[in-house]
Write a structure and sequence with these properties.
Elements lengths: L9 E6 L4 E5 L9 H19 L5 E3 L2 E7 L6 E7 L3 E3 L5 H46 L9 H9 L11 H11 L1 E9 L2 E10 L4
């Protein structure tokens, strides 16, 4: 595939004597909203399809590619959303077809983002539980392995308001400053913090 930096659609692949073609458009304008990008591209797609069906019916599909940045990390995640192949004839309403295709792409994107949010919420809850379990051992160092009122005491004793989960090093530093405690970090692996079971109060001078 030929690389392109054009803000319009460019023919990047042609096979079977031009019967199979692939067009690519880069988001050089930095449009962040998928619906806005599709609407911005609609007239060009419409023109390409109309020109293609002048001689004979065609089949086409649309693929939307996006890059997401995972919150609290520098990790980038590439995703692709694709419509099924659709036959189009000169007598068809191409504009309506495109609108249906856009809806399908946006639904796929919404479902993926909902899944990611739910998964992130699960990870956040798990991270919160881990973070609080370490602090609970400070509240009740005797039989710290027991789950009981010590976990409730943690919620009442410490301020978690400005902490983002999964917690970053900056979040731990904020927590230490707000609550006057010292949290020992065991390791940093795959963007996740590992804690030692050792949280100490900072003695006032």
């Amino acid at each position: 595939m030929r690389m392109t930096t054009s803000s319009t659609f460019v023919l990047t692949k042609s096979a079977f004597n031009g019967l199979c073609k692939e067009y690519l458009k880069k988001n050089t304008d930095g449009i962040k909203n998928a619906r806005d990008f599709l609407d911005h591209s609609k007239l060009e797609i419409y023109a390409i399809l109309n020109e293609s069906i002048e001689n004979s019916p065609v089949k086409y599909n649309i693929k939307l590619e996006a890059t997401y940045i995972i919150p609290n990390t520098h990790t980038r995640e590439n995703r692709a959303f694709k419509t099924r192949s659709r036959s189009v004839f000169q007598s068809d309403d191409v504009n309506n077809f495109l609108e249906l295709d856009f809806i399908k792409l946006l639904q796929e994107q919404e479902e993926m983002e909902l899944y990611r949010r739910n998964r992130r919420n699960y990870i956040q809850r798990k991270c919160i539980q881990t973070f609080r379990s370490i602090l609970a051992k400070l509240v009740n160092p005797v039989h710290a392995e027991r789950i009981g009122s010590n976990y409730v005491e943690v919620e009442n004793r410490y301020d978690f308001e400005n902490i983002n989960f999964p917690a970053s090093l900056n979040d731990v530093a904020k927590f230490e400053k707000t609550n006057k405690v010292s949290v020992n970090i065991y390791s940093l692996k795959n963007g996740e913090l590992k804690y030692k079971n050792n949280v100490k109060k900072i003695q006032k001078e």
